[in-house]
Amino acid sequence: MDFMTRTETVSPYKHILIMTAVEAEREAVLRGVAKAEIEQGQEGKAKFDVQLCGVGPISAAAEAAAYLAVNPQYDLVISAGIGGGFPGLADIGSIAIADSIIAADLGAETGDGFSSVDELGFGSSRIPVEPALPERLMNAITAAGWPACCGPILTLSTVTGSQTTADELSRRIPGAVAEAMEGYGAAFAAHRLGIPVMEIRAISNAVGPRDRESWRIGDALQALERASYFLAEVL
Ligand SMILES: O=C(O)c1cccc(C(=O)CC[C@H]2O[C@@H](n3cnc4c(=O)[nH]cnc43)[C@H](O)[C@@H]2O)c1
């Protein structure tokens, strides 16, 4: 894969943990990072550690917390993988980068609709991400001619499967660009330990009516590999 130009940066991040749900995502991230490290002459420096966290926010939180408990050296934790994109904001094959990570179904259904944990007074459904990094990564990707965007990325335990739910999520979280199932879980564990977080999603499908046949997983994994290459350049 030809990724084109290189961005020169001095990085404050020495040990970065990337968590993916499944092995195919892990391998895509490893390929992208390895390509950048070879180009930079940084092979074997073990700056990036890519680990599995399983599918869903509970598994992601438990795996991230368990891993960080015995490996406390990380100064950045990134949830990465494929995800659903909100049409018109994050198209299939593009990269969505979180400017905040939101547990979109953490709350209560009330007579008036959905109330978030924030509204219920039980905590925060939003985890802030490391400032400036999302835009830097987006700029590196788009400068090379590939599509990428920044915005809130939602974490849900249930993949959205109807237009009604997609519309409701867009209404409740204006500007949401993508959804996936692990970001908030991994981010919660890291944030709890004071470690900065990011989330990156390569878009495999549109958020909306369920049509599993239309998921473009191969394209998304290629985009994830590419994004990981630029991530390793930016960081
Ligand atoms: O079947 C495969 O080859 C394959 C390869 C890589 C990943 C998968 C997955 O099914 C991973 C599940 C993973 O995907 C995220 N995801 C993707 N689209 C959505 C969505 O529209 N809404 C929520 N999550 C989505 C999610 O994070 C899952 O962990 C299969």
UniProtKB/TrEMBL annotation:
Pathway: Quinol/quinone metabolism; menaquinone biosynthesis. It comes from the Bacteria. The keyword Transcription does not apply. Pfam families: PNP_UDP_1. InterPro entries: FL_hydrolase_MqnB, Nucleoside_phosphorylase_d, Nucleoside_phosphorylase_sf. The keyword Hydrolase applies. This is Futalosine hydrolase. Catalyzes the hydrolysis of futalosine (FL) to dehypoxanthine futalosine (DHFL) and hypoxanthine, a step in the biosynthesis of menaquinone (MK, vitamin K2). The lineage of its organism: Bacteria, Bacillati, Bacillota, Bacilli, Bacillales. Gene3D superfamilies: Nucleoside phosphorylase domain. Belongs to the PNP/UDP phosphorylase family. Futalosine hydrolase subfamily. It comes from Paenibacillus aceti. CDD domains: futalosine_nucleosidase_MqnB (cd17766).
